[in-house]
Amino acid sequence: MSIIQLPSTRCYWNENLGHPKISTVMSCNRFEEIKRFIHFNDNTLQIPKGQTGHNPLHKIQPFLDHLRQRFLTIPKEEYMAVDEQIIPTKSRSSMRQYNPKKPHKWGYKNFVLSGSSGFSYDFEIYTGAQGCVESDSNLPKISTSSDVVVRLSRTIPEGANYKLFFDNWYTSLPLLIYLNKKAILPLGTIKANRIPGYKVPAEKDLKKLGRGATIEKLTTVDNTDISIVTWYDNRVVNLASTYVGSRPASEVRRFNKKEKAYQNLPCPKAVMTYNRHMGSVDLLDALLGYYRIQIRSKKFYHRIFFHMIDIVTVNAWLLYRRGLDETEPYLPLADFKIAVAEGLCQVNKPTTSARRGRPSYELEYAIEAKKLRGHVAIMPSMDVRLDKIDHLPIWTTRQRCKVPDCSGRSHVECQKCKVSLCLNDKRNCFLRFHTT
Predict the structure, then answer these.
(1) Overall pTM > 0.85
(2) CA–CA separation, 436 vs 420, rounded Å?
(3) What are residue 93's phi and psi, to 5 degrees?
(4) Could you give the C-alpha distances from 308 to 125, 134, 143, in angstroms and in order?
(5) At residue 179, what are phi and psi to the nearest 5 degrees?
(6) I want to staple 127 with a disulfide (CB 3.0 to 4.6 A). Which of 56, 113, 281, 433 is the partner?
(7) Listed range (77-86, 269-278, 376-385) with the worst mean pLDDT
(8) Distance separating alpha carbons of residues 21 and 106, to the nearest angstrom
(9) Do 196 and 251 meet the contact criterion of CB atoms below 8 Å apart?
(10) Considering the chain, what is the average pLDDT of its residues?
């Protein structure tokens, strides 16, 4: 696997555009050269196309395996969902799929096991019908779609009553039975033709009963109790589960076109639970879409590589939020990405003279408070500010000191942080800025 040390970058504020921009000493040609030669696997070991064992993802497989192993080390949430996402691309590849229901219709299909917070715990990139799919003799063969859930759920601890959600493309009765025997509690919408022996009520019959009509059927298959809930809202929806049914029912607010007023309708417990926890992969897609890496390339594995970098960053931000202390400053996703980029490019190993122990957040609080009051110069992240590497004073034009509680003006600027700081016989904001 290639490891590339990127040059240092600086983040500046563009008042006309209203958002930070990253400038770097690296030339465009240098970046394109690095992107051209980056690789993750030995191409001579790839099995030719058409032969048994051919893996279309061979060029990037070690990188994907490493990320997946790191994701699996994180304790899982109680509520999780399996759904597909599209890695957007316009490049020509046999793995590219078309899905008109997705915001990005063309791209590589990626099946994701995600928690209710949006954290990606596992993934599987679809390589096509002829692609090489990891096989496990201990896993049952149910169907093409249900087998995706079977493979992604094998890393979920058994016997801990984790809840797993999926839509009607994956749901089948054998899948529900398999998960229930593993003590994984499933819930998903289901197609009417996948429920043998059950005649789904016609929409016209439910329409006579009124909007909000609910019908529940219980059955036992292979010593597993299954609940089939049919609910009529704008359309008929069927849900199947082994742990939740129609009761206790709740109420939802809907607009009545005839009466031109809102009304409360009864809603089954299964529908409420499904709507609350099924959108985890959609939440992940939304977080990825805010600040997606927009780099074009004709090589298919480049697009997958950049997408995985986005997922890693979002996962890191979600973990940061999960363990955030009330006394620590909060970073939005955009600021977190800037801090990560700046840290990877500038932070080096601490010197022996670096102060040990947990750093004080007193100055960081003052900087964040000043941001809320109005315009403030872009400050380096705490990791860069306290790394004790290359923070040397240089002479520049006289500007106001950037320490929030200092009103002095100084000709001294930190050559690394690019902020003006007092450094004279009366005030030493330079030392305070880089040590607290």
Answers:
(1) no
(2) 16
(3) -160, 145
(4) 11, 20, 28
(5) -65, -40
(6) 56
(7) 376-385
(8) 29
(9) no
(10) 82
Residue 374 is predicted with a pLDDT of: 53
Residue pair 32/299 in contact by the 8 Å Cβ criterion: no
* Residue 403 Cα to chain centre, angstroms: 35
**Tokens standing for residue 35:** 């992107």
**Average pLDDT, stretch 359-384?**
67
Give Cα 160 to chain centroid, integer Å. 24
Q: Is the per-residue pLDDT at 4 higher than 50?
A: no
* Torsion angle defined by CA atoms of residues 404, 406, 410 and 413, in that order, rounded to the nearest 10 degrees: -30
Phi (first) and psi of residue 249, to 5 degrees: -80, 150
Torsion, Cα 147 149 155 157, to 10 degrees, reads -120
Q: What is the mean pLDDT of residues 371-380?
A: 63
If you search the block for the tokens 């009520």, which residue do you land on?
Answer: 201
State both tokens at 345: 């490019």
Q: Taking a C-beta distance cutoff of 8 angstroms, is the pair 409, 399 a contact?
A: yes
Residue 427 one-letter amino acid = R
Half-sphere exposure of 148 (CA within 13 A, CB side): 24
Non-local CB neighbours of 284 within 8 Å, separated by 6+ positions: 85, 112, 114, 118, 119, 120, 311, 314
pLDDT in tens, 88-134: 888 888 888 888 878 888 889 999 999 999 999 999 999 877 655 56
Token readout for 420 is 């003006």
Pairing of strands 250-256, 236-241: unpaired
Q: Name beta bridge partners: 24.
A: 9
Instruction: Note whether 268 and 216 are within 8 A (CB).
Output: yes
φ, ψ of residue 248 to 5 degrees: the values are -75, 135
Two structure tokens written together for 235: 């359309």
H-state helical runs in 120-166: 144-152
If you search the block for the tokens 């090589």, which residue do you land on?
Answer: 299
The per-residue pLDDT for range 262-303, each reduced to its tens digit, is 888 889 999 999 999 998 898 998 999 898 988 888 888 899
